[in-house]
UniProtKB/TrEMBL annotation:
The keyword Disulfide bond does not apply. It comes from Tianweitania populi. Transmembrane segments: none annotated. The keyword Transport applies. Gene3D superfamilies: 3.40.50.2300. Belongs to the leucine-binding protein family. Residues 23-345 form the Leucine-binding protein domain. GO terms for biological process: amino acid transport. Residues 1-22 form the signal peptide. This is ABC transporter substrate-binding protein. InterPro entries: BCAA_transport, Leu-bd, Peripla_BP_I. Keywords: Amino-acid transport, Signal, Transport.
Amino acid sequence: MKFALVAVTALSIGAASQAAQAEIVVGVGTALSGAVASIGIPNHKGIKAGFEYKGEINGEPIRMVVLDDGSDPSTAARNARKFVEQENVDIIIGTAGAPQTLAMATAAAELKVPMVAISPIAPPPEGEGGPWVVQTPQPMPLLVQGVVDHMQANGVKTVAFIGFADAFGDLLSASLKASAEKAGIEIVTDERYARTDTSVAAQALKAVARKPDAVMIGGTATPGALPALALADRRYNGKIYGNHGLISADFLRVAGEQANGIICPTGPVVVAEQLSDDNPIKKVALAFRDAYQKANGEAVQDAFAPYAFDGWLVFADAATRALETGAKPGTPEFKSALREALFTTKEVVGTHAVYNYTPESSLGVDERSRVLVRIDNGEYKLVN
């Protein structure tokens, strides 16, 4: 928690100097500790980059309140209540992990405060007055479809799945099943493991025994490396596919050379310099890298920080339009205007996608948000 408070102080200096003005208050929930901290800490750094990139809205200062949920869904929901009841935030951005984000989003809808989710979730309950939550990550079916298209083009007929035994793993597995069935690809086994497990030897053994043409890894960051290592131990020589959660310095560090050749779907930001100059995402993605370097004193090494940065861009665009209604930050009218602005977002260019939201869709992205990359000695190479 001390880490979060230090971050709030550092990022609120500009707002403090303009205390006479109304301020927009943003509640940032993330996992600075616990099982998904390897996602939550990059998320937090992405928010810092967003503040560096745009630290005020039409002259209105921004104050951030950052809370660590410890990777716990119950704490994430309680943090949402703290944001609203103790800090009177105008919007929430968060958090790391699908179960935690869904818990926070459900609370946000109940409390009637708009939220930008930065982890992929199923649409939460709408709450009174309509939907309150949009999300920046690409929907899992869109990402997985890119993987299955590649499988089909490369003669894969059978695939094994080794993934998390939680909501993330369920969503990835269901998306794979739906796309694979349409492509005529058989899923020969669906093996699961906990994020806190230290070995997936048994799961890998079962998968390899089925002799699949390919294996898809359904883990993320550090624990996502376990299947790659276990498959290498069993000398599996088929194709290996990952997911966007493997675009992580922690994954590369732990998996080492066993990550080579793994193909993952991800957002364009990961290979920004490899994009064509006419791709609108390229300019924003490169600007994000500069802002990240300034805010954090290091180069970005993952795809999680950009989701949070994009969440900040979506918020900033919506807040700009909400202020034009004359509603004042801190009031129910401003929260309502902000919610309406979120769901009328048009062509907001981010690092992962170009965002368009409607009351009927909280997803907001299309095929422009997906590329395939191949891991090659710690680097990501665009797959054409």
